[in-house]
Structure formats: C-alpha cells, structure tokens
Design brief:
single chain; mainly alpha; elongated; disordered N terminus; membrane
Length: 171
C-alpha cells in the first residue's frame, strides 16, 4: 500500500472486492455531489435572472448531502483518511501504531454497527409513517436505500481494516 497518501495515514491492504465497493460508493457519492452543485448553480442563476429558483432546492441538497457523506465514509476508512491524533504515537514503533489503529478501528466498527442498526430502524419507521420532505413531498426513506448499504459497507471496511492492522502487529 502506498504510504505517501498523507503524512500520517497507515492504510492496510483490503480484499480487492471490498476496495472496489468502497471506490464505487465514493464514485456514486461524487456524482451526487456534482449533481447537487449543478442544481445549486442552476437554482441561483434562475433566482437571479427570473426570480424563480428551483422549488425545494434546499431539500434536494439536504438529502443529497446525507447520501454523499455516507457514500464517502467507507472510502475514507479504506484509505486511512480519518483524523489521527498522533501526538502520543509520534515516537511509537510500527507495531504500537498498528495496535492503536486497530483499537481505533474497533471503536469505529462499534459506532458504525450502532448507527447501522439505528438507521435501519429509523428508515423502516419513516417508511411506515410516510415521512416526506416539506416542499417536494419526497419520501424521506428513499435516501435510506443508499445510506443503509453504505453503512453496511463502512461496517465491513472497519472490520477489515481492524483485522489488517492486527495482522501487521503480529508481523
């Protein structure tokens, strides 16, 4: 794995299928982000020229932001791109660093699993009650169609990076 990504990143090798899925989700998140950007530019342009913005543009940005963020999380984890506080590990050896990163991955894995569980229940509840956005009346649960698989992927990626760091501790 290339250590030049960032000065302090310690990414570990992942199974190719998992790395590919992380890239696909990040690519989809990028497409959603690009669509939000283009829609925002169009809405601002229409507002300034015709006085008529795209109705519900803020709702689309809100939903799109949630989707994009959740799609980027697995890629960030796979690349070792999360924030590290290395003040305590600057003089630690590689084994200790990987052990601490495995511990951090375990904590992140537990948080991701908790979020996956709660988001699943929340999505089911929003579907059951027919929760919709205010202006466009978009069913909110639609976003969970992407968010839940992204959280599943994040959970799997956290487990894989934790295992990878533990293997490097024993190496």
């Amino acid at each position: 794995m290339d250590e030049t990504l960032t000065e302090h990143a310690h990414p570990v090798p992942l199974p190719s299928w998992l790395a590919t899925l992380c890239r696909v989700f990040a690519g989809f998140g990028g497409v959603v982000l690009l669509a939000m950007m283009l829609m925002t530019v169009a809405s601002v342009t229409l507002r300034s020229t015709l006085g008529k913005p795209i109705p519900g543009d803020f709702e689309l940005v809100e939903i799109g932001s949630a989707i994009a963020i959740f799609c980027f999380l697995p890629w960030c984890q796979s690349m070792g791109g999360n924030v590290l506080v290395d003040f305590f590990t600057m003089k630690a050896g590689p084994r200790m660093t990987h052990l601490l990163e495995a511990l951090g991955d375990l904590v992140y894995l537990l948080i991701a699993a908790l979020l996956l569980w709660r988001l699943s229940l929340g999505g089911i509840e929003m579907h059951r009650y027919g929760e919709q956005s205010m202006v466009l009346r978009i069913p909110i649960w639609y976003s969970f169609i992407v968010v839940i698989p992204a959280m599943m992927l994040l959970t799997a990626t956290c487990a894989a990076t934790m295992i990878g760091h533990l293997r490097l501790v024993r190496a």
